[in-house]
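re the bet — no i am not wrong, look at it urself. input seq straight from the record:
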Amino acid sequence: MGISSLFQRYPLLLPLISLGLGIVGGKKIFFSEWMLSSVSTFLLCLIFLLLMFITYSIQRYVMRWIYGVFLTLFFASLGITLTLLSLEKTQSHFFTNTSCYKVRLVSNVSNHPNSYIADAQLISRVDSLGFNIEEKCFIQLYFEKDSLLSELKCDDELLIYSKIQSPQIQLNDEAFDYSCYLLYNGYAGTGYVSKGRWKKLISPSKHTIKYWSLYCQEQVVELYKKWNLNEDALGVLSALTVGVKSNIEEEVLTSFSSAGVNHVLALSGLHVGFICLFFHFFLRWMSRKNRTIEKWGRVPLVVVLWLFSFLVGSSPSIVRAVMMFSLFLLSSLGNRKRNSIQVLCVTALVMLLYRPLWLFDVGFQLSFVAVASILIIHPIVKNYFSFHFKISNYVWELISVSLVAQLGVLPLIIYYFSTFPLYFLLGNLLVIPLISVILFIAFLALLTFFMPVVNSILVFLLSQLLILLLSLVKSIESLPYSTLDGIWITEIEVFVLLILLVFFTLLLYKPSVRHLTLFLCGVGLFLMSHFYYQEQAQLKSDILFYSVRNCPVIHC
């Protein structure tokens, strides 16, 4: 399959790639000294759109590539414009001195080791004369520990006396750039609020969707606490079902990561697929005599999926899964053949148009790359082996899916975490079936809260399964050489590895000398780039100074 035929088969692939490149370019422009604003790039976008309409009217077949060029330029300029608009919203000029601000919390207050943290929307600043100067941006607040903070909820309005400042640029070499993380998530600044320097105003009579989402999560977690689960089991169950990870200890998260199964703690396609499976059996039972119920019953299922997405916080991975399942369910109403890759392209394009900075979210990247690898490579790999027994086929299916998904996300995992779990196949083979059983029993336990005897049996069984899950994860972590640590690659090497993965896929689909040559050239290119950066990273006679609070650090 050539490039042109590939774009013809998946017509949204070219706009998606162009939009992604535009978003990356928009980020580079924003953090550089180029004097470009979203207004100028928007005008450029309109020009390319006009040229698209003009060239579309050209009837000559040999000139069709001109339309493709302007289509690419339009979506690239659109990506730049949307990125600049999103990042410009985070640019606020705060006063250098401590001032009084009126804010509205957009999250609950969460407990951290040294302080309490909450997200807030800045409403206004009160000057020395008592006038309210309107300020509209999102900030992150750090509160000094105070027992009264437990009363604060999402949507509460506060008066705070604090110094708000823009996120500080990361100065430490090879450290996590928290300032960019804040900007990508829409935060314009941060502030520290000392004890006694805040006052709660009257709570609003009407609450936002975010409030009700957090409220439902709290109610579910409070119900879990009544089941008398141990602390680690409670944290894992809260993460698996409603996406609340605040109750999980850092040691447990490390164990899941070392075992290569930390993806199960992020709500994604596994959880959405479980909901769809449950409703599918329910619809099949309801439509035994009327198939119309089964067909049109998928519409309320789509509504249920989106309600679940809002309930658990609408992270990029869950939005991707819900949107893909929704498109599959709705497309089946017209009895059309479903194209999984095209649905994935539609999902990614819509999500990036809605929030372009999601492209730099690690969860977004891992989610889409893993699903793309499964959809493209798995249909070939699974046919390499075939068994007579269903159990054997199921085990091979699970192994091949895990292998393909891990192969796709391998460059990103090494780049972001500098580590790789060696026993990920064993972890997924043991943990994923157990997770499916845990989700099913947890769902039944929630439904049978009014039946004490049945509920107590289910809760006991759930508790034992969670203990078994934690034991399995810690056992895999304790195996020798469970992780490879200290692996460093650059952004260029990540890009080369992804290109190499594309060449490998072409070789699987159509083995030929040409595709083998491309693959070997890709291997050579990666080795050259890796040795080059390794040479650049040799020991040097340098002194590095690190910015660490209350602790001077010098690296010789």
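see?? The mean pLDDT is 81. told u. also The two ends are 53 Å apart (CA to CA). so pay up
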